[in-house]
Amino acid sequence: MKSQATELHFLVQEYLHELHVLRQLSPHTLKAYRMDLNELQEFAADDSVELLKVSNTHVRRWAGRLHSKGKSSRSIARALSAWRGWYHWITEKDARRDAGAGQLAANLIANPVDDVKAPKRLKSLPKALSVEQALALVNQAVLEAQEKKDLETIRDAAIVDLLYSSGLRLSELLGIDVMQSKDRLQESAGWLDWDAAEVTVLGKGGKRRSVPVGSPAMKSLQAWRDIRNASECATQSIALFISAVGSRLSPRTVQARLRTLAMRAGLPTHVHPHMMRHSFASHVLQSSQDLRAVQEMLGHASIASTQIYTSLDFQHLAQAYDKAHPRAKAGKD
Fold first, then answer.
1. Is 88 marked active-site?
2. Distance CA 110, CA 133 (A)
3. I want to staple 25 with a disulfide (CB 3.0 to 4.6 A). Which of 29, 162, 287, 332 is the partner?
4. Side-chain half-sphere of 232: how many Cα atoms within 13 Å?
5. What is the pTM assigned to this prediction?
6. Domains of the chain: residue spans and CATH
7. Which one is catalytic: 67, 225, 274, 316?
8. Cα 192 from Cα 176, distance rounded (Å)
9. pLDDT digits (tens, 9 = 90+) for 209-218
């Protein structure tokens, strides 16, 4: 295919002019439409097909070519939309009997782009830490808490430990109170049962769920509770995780503290709270193979939302196979 058509079809030029003048599309959008319609014209020229004699079969073939060239689903969908819009405009001109268009559009029985869809975009897998990376992060937080013994580092260790231990969303974590309050004016969204080692949170859709907390995480939480209750600002909030001035901790603070902590742990990736949730789900599934249990602990309404972690599990198994199996690398050398 040529890299650029010598001249756009006069009806393409007229269409682009109308988009600019009447519809006032942005220069960026117009540039994208011009590029997509130019590509349509090149496809037609390569296959010796007149633009106004293009069929649905041609369009499907050309959409396949876009895919084989490595175009993303989003780019292919945009190209099809531009093509569809132009052919729709042509048929409208024919209906109005605009000068010069009626005879040209007479060859079009229907819009050839109708019913042609771009390939579905692959749902990106959630990013999760490896077991080694997750442990390195938690261990870094605990080590700093043991060394510095101040309010913020002990709190951060409890947060990281709880995120990885129970797979909570950030909003759920920050909604936890030191103990359950049933006061109508200040009813707890979440709370810790210190004796049962269990956290209850308010998830999506207003659904409550209870998740077990591992003993190492409970140890970090108890250390945090002790220093929190001993601080002067403890009485200012019933929130479990508070700032140095006693207010409920903000999401941005947790995100920033986790990011810098991961850097000090030497992790080669940007770590955010939801990545800890993904890591929890992936690692529990790797160990237990119990999809339903992971669904319950994550608070997913549909098992389909949890099944994406089976792909992460397969990736883990595939990597382990490549490293361990004698025949894995056969023929790759």
1. no
2. 57
3. 29
4. 2
5. 0.60
6. 10-105 (1.10.150), 131-270 (1.10.443.10)
7. 274
8. 7
9. 999 999 999 9
Contact 84, 111 (CB under 8 A): yes
| Active-site option among 31, 148, 204, 325 | 204
Question: 281 near 299, Cβ under 8 Å?
Answer: no
Q: How far apart are CA 10 and CA 101, in angstroms?
A: 11
Task: Give the position of tokens 């998740």.
Answer: 211
Judge residue 198's burial from the number of C-beta atoms within 10 Å of its C-beta, 0-12 exposed, 13-18 middle, 19 or more buried: middle
Output the pLDDT for position 322.
Answer: 54
Residue 199 forms beta bridges with which residues? 192, 211
Average pLDDT over residues 270-290: 89
Active-site position among 9, 228, 257, 277: 277
Instruction: Check if the beta carbon of residue 277 is closer than 8 Å to that of residue 211.
Output: no
Is 60 a residue of the active site? no
Distances in Å between the Cα of 226 and the Cα atoms of 46, 101, 180, 236, 333 are: 75, 81, 18, 16, 58
Residue 289's pLDDT band (cuts 50, 70, 90): confident
Q: How far apart are CA 114 and CA 104, in angstroms?
A: 19
| Model pLDDT for residues 252-265, shown as the tens digit of each residue | 999 999 999 999 99
169 is catalytic: yes
Looking at residue 22, the DSSP 8-state letter turns out to be T
Distance CA 195, CA 191 (A): 12
Bridge partner residues of 192 (DSSP) = 199
Place of tokens 């080669």: 268
Is 149 an annotated catalytic residue? no
Both tokens of residue 37? 């319609």
Catalytic: 33?
no
